[in-house]
Amino acid sequence: MADDRDHKKLGKELEIFTFSDTVGKGLPLWLPKGATIRRELERFIVDEEIRRGYLHVRTPDIAKLELYKKSGHYPYYKDSMYAPIVIDDEEFMLRPMTCPHHFELYLSKPRSYRDLPMRIAELAQLYRYEQSGELMGLQRVRAFCLSDAHIICVDEAQAVEEMGKALDLIEYVNKVFHLEYGKDFRYRLSLGDRNNTEKYFKDDAGWDKAEKLLRELMEKRKAEFEEAKDEAAFYGPKIDVQMKNVNGKEDTAFTVQYDLSSSHRFDLNYTGEDGKAHKAFVVHRSSIGAIERIVAFLIEKYAGAFPLWLSPVQAKILPIGEAHLDFAKKIFENLKENNIRAELDDSSENLGKKIRSAKVEKVPYTIVIGDKEVEANMITLESRDSGNLGQISPEELLSKLKEEISAKR
Description:
It holds the Pfam family HGTP_anticodon. Its EC number is 6.1.1.3. With 409 residues, the protein is of the alpha+beta class. The protein has helices spanning 2-5, 7-13, 32-51, 65-71, 73-77, 99-106, 156-176, 204-220, 262-265, 291-302, 325-337, 351-360, 371-376, 394-407, and strands at 17-18, 29-30, 55-56, 62-64, 85-87, 90-94, 118-127, 143-153, 185-191, 225-229, 238-244, 250-259, 269-271, 277-279, 281-290, 315-319, 342-344, 365-369, 379-383, 387-392. α2 packs across α10 (291-302).
């Protein structure tokens, strides 16, 4: 049933996140277990992006309003931006996007064609004042962390090549998450509308060419996609990865975008092989989207039963009685020292209740320790997904957990 997978229900039951009207609507508070899931996702994507040549940076959550006027975002997004903050006669904004920050970072020194493509990435905290009626759990919030990146390229051919590599990364991420094309996600080519000059940057020829390039990229990849008019970003067309929640509502999870305007607005130039200044080309992309939104999708995908590498508690140690507590503590300490997220249930409850509690919490592995285990220096291992796995040694347990975590199975 959809209700059994609803991330809002499971998020509360599994103590992943909460909200407080005193803090504010749409501003999620991550509980320890939820913070653990976030941390694993962030480490995973940052390490993978660095491996693929991205340069991770940090930029401020706030900037002068002039920055967003310069980028062109302010007239298009001002209704969903937080109100300006006036300090010392200057207006500042909580940022709703990172692109202008990254462009200013690019401009911090002269760039050569040898520096490009330059892949600037950040796990960026963003703020958008979504309408109250649009807020929905973690899927639509007012404060979120985006796995954002902006790729500065020498020409349109390099830009299209980088878009293909960004799609490769997205497909790799989906494979790790066990998300299947056609079942869990689909591609959408989001196009502009030449007549809608209030919403879109005016450059008819540029739009025609950019949309043609993205269409050819998807066809070359033999990727099924649908086209959607009037769904583009104001500065250019994009390839969106669309996912549905358990209630059937669709949202964009990841995106790769072709930018027609920012290079001109920010004078994003580089020195070419000929020693002359050339206009750069810009690609925007998000590899796992907003952390909040992907966590919501994954809670529903797994029905709260996260794979071992993402599980807030990876193993729970259940001594049957007080006589088994010392051995249980040794197992617990050994797992902790090896960065396994373990918990020791040393309560006075009987074994049946301890096992039921671990099942309710959807812990991947339970480790039972009684007289036989202490005598044999072994543990009895039970898997959430595969049932009773019998007795194994502490060394075998550690090896098994490490291998499964590393493989992200």
